[in-house]
Specification:
single chain, 594 residues, alpha/beta, eight-stranded antiparallel β-sheet, seven-stranded antiparallel β-sheet, 19 helices, 25 strands, globular, binds 2-deoxy-2-amino glucitol-6-phosphate
């Protein structure tokens, strides 16, 4: 899941490309490179962050260029394996996001024909194939090349002799920004916002010819008209706004995100999906599929749907759905995906759609592949999320699920009224957590020296224990496990010692007594306990070593304040450990390869 970018316009391409790569760094940051077309084609690549490319690249002049920031799939991070890749004659330069699955066989054929390869990447076959097929027409050579590639790709190609850029897509995302006297392509929207909010989303099998003056899109060799969507994000949204990290900024945006999502919310309105979609009539139930943090949002939704609507819900990891021999019959499916580009989710959506399922996508990105694939789409209104660790998007996913469930006609009016009025208090409760950040910072200081941490929760907060563990793993490099509290005595107990802190989510509901028992069992194994407990829970102080308070509220919505609390705990723990919070090693924001 690399980030590719291309510029054709009236400004110098190099500074524009570098600026855009900085805005795509969350997609991969182990190496980067540019190719600039001026009087000649100049290529420069560097290991590490975009800043090391920026600090070392010579001043190449030219108004057309491409760039790349890498998340290595084939070939370790190195200057040689960094993109752009070129051919033997160095006439063509290519940047690529995705995986060419038949590259080995193509590489062997090209080597047999005399081509010399210098990298270990799958991508390098592309410029060599273009060189092989080039007869004076770049797009013809690119089309011939694409016809023999298998796998996923978004590519941008420039050539020594041609004053244009050719782009194409299959599986990996590619958007085109229409500026005035300049056009820019990228793997995602943020870099486009410096130039325009008019965007074209390329679909699989489409090819684009980009010049300073025009953008032409072809499908099967024929020029086609593409809808232009107006993006309602602006450059401020993709800047840190005075915060040290995007993650902290995005955590602090959550009260506003919730308030925005609840604006004009009318639980009496017709829900986008109803009981038919949920299939309780057919007794088949509902499937929710997702990955990572979005999967945890799906688990919370399962508890709420089953508790309030009595509809059986299966929540599955999308990467597992893809490798099942056969699809277990379900009524329909909800795909939850912040980016809308997660390959595992897209592949399983296609499988379910082929199996006759209707799909609802809950996503944060307008025009994303998931939105275009699904029968219906519910947009989260979280705004662009740049930190690799998902925070506000998780809360926005929960809010959209709560809103959807509370619109269901199966709910009694008195219950609906009570829950909707509680839901509308959420922005205040989220702000309460942010206003009491100090207590969390202290606990983070306490946790930061440890190398193993457990998270436990019960019922609707079991998924939040999973999410808390994922957050601290992602950004602080502490090994953490989330467990259903009742489960740890069935094995993980053996790991408990005085250097394995346990973060326990203790809600004042029907799980309270059982959680207290679990904490006593953990204490008897001398493991330190940090309890996340409601402000009026005074008993817990007698048991836990430390207590992080959250506001009293209806338990159904407690995942929201508990999740924000654990996001901050992970953030400050990573800060105390001096970790690169927005760009944790080996990760990327949107996982566009299987
Ligand atoms: C979460 O912090 C991670 N970035 C990751 O687990 C993420 O949630 C997962 O890759 C799913 O992404 P999506 O929501 O964009 O599909």
């Amino acid at each position: 899941m690399c980030g590719i970018v291309g510029y054709a316009g009236n400004r110098e391409a190099l500074p524009s490309i570098i600026k855009a790569l900085h805005k795509l760094e969350y997609r991969g940051y182990d190496s980067a490179g540019v190719a600039i077309l001026g009087t000649e084609l100049n290529i420069f690549k560097a290991c590490g962050r975009v800043s090391s490319l920026e600090n070392n690249v010579p001043t190449f002049n030219g108004k057309i260029g491409i760039g790349h920031t890498r998340w290595a799939t084939h070939g370790e991070p190195s200057q040689i394996n960094a993109h752009p890749h070129t051919d033997c004659s160095r006439r063509f330069a290519v940047v690529h996001n995705g995986v060419i699955s038949n590259y080995q066989q193509l590489k062997e054929e090209l080597i047999a024909e005399g081509h010399r390869f210098i990298s270990d990447t799958d991508t390098e076959v592309i410029p060599h194939l273009i060189e092989k097929y080039y007869g004076g027409d770049l797009e013809a050579a690119v089309i011939k090349t694409l016809n023999i590639l298998t796998g996923s790709y978004a590519i941008a190609v420039i050539a020594q002799t041609e004053n244009k850029m050719v782009v194409a897509k299959n599986g990996s995302p590619l958007v085109i920004g229409l500026g005035s006297k300049e056009n820019i392509i990228a793997s995602d929207i943020p870099p486009l916002l410096d130039y325009t909010n008019r965007v074209i989303c390329l679909d699989d099998g489409e090819l684009g010819i980009i010049t300073q003056e025009a953008v032409k899109i072809y499908k099967n060799g024929r020029l086609i008209d593409k809808p232009v969507s107006i993006v309602d994000w602006n450059t401020e949204d993709v800047q840190k706004g005075g915060y040290e990290h995007f993650m902290l900024k995005e955590i602090h945006e959550q009260p506003k995100v919730i308030r925005q999502a609840l604006l004009n919310y009318n639980s009496a309105a017709e829900p986008i999906i109803g009981s038919d979609f949920m299939g309780n009539k057919a007794g088949k139930g509902l499937l929710i599929l997702a990955c990572g943090t979005s999967y945890h949002a799906g688990l919370v939704a399962k508890y709420v749907i089953e508790d309030l609507l009595d509809v059986p819900v299966r929540v599955e990891l999308a990467s597992e759905v893809n490798h099942r021999e056969r699809i277990i019959p379900v009524a329909n499916a909800i795909a939850i995906t912040q980016s809308g580009e997660t390959a595992d989710v897209l592949i399983s959506m296609k499988k379910l759609i082929d199996a006759g399922c209707s799909t609802l996508a809950i996503t944060n990105v307008k025009g994303s592949s998931a939105a275009r694939l699904a029968n219906q789409t519910l947009y989260m209104q979280a705004g662009p999320e740049l930190s690799v660790a998902a925070t506000k998007s998780f809360i926005a996913q929960l809010i959209e699920m709560y809103k959807l469930i509370l619109m269901q006609p199966a709910l009694s009016e008195p219950l609906k009224t009570q829950l909707v009025s509680e839901l509308k208090l959420m922005p205040g409760y989220a702000q309460w957590v942010l206003d009491h950040e100090d207590q969390i910072r202290d606990c983070a200081n306490h946790i930061s020296p440890y190398s193993n941490v457990f998270y436990i929760g019960r019922g609707i907060n079991y998924p939040i224990a999973l999410e808390g563990a994922l957050k601290i793993k992602e950004i602080s490099y502490i090994h953490a496990e989330g467990y259903a509290a009742g489960e740890i005595k069935h094995g993980p107990f053996s790991l408990l010692q005085n250097d394995t802190p346990v973060v326990a989510i203790v809600s004042k509901d029907f799980t309270y007594e059982a959680m207290i028992t679990n904490i006593k069992e953990i204490k008897s194994r001398r493991a330190p306990v940090i309890a996340v407990a409601q402000e009026d829970d005074h008993y817990i102080e007698q048991l836990a070593d430390r207590v992080i308070r959250v506001p009293n509220m209806h338990n159904l919505f407690s995942p929201i304040v508990n999740a924000i609390t654990l996001q901050l705990l992970a953030y400050y723990t990573a800060k105390y450990r001096g970790c690169p919070i927005d760009f944790p090693r080996n990760l990327a924001k949107s996982v566009t390869v299987e």
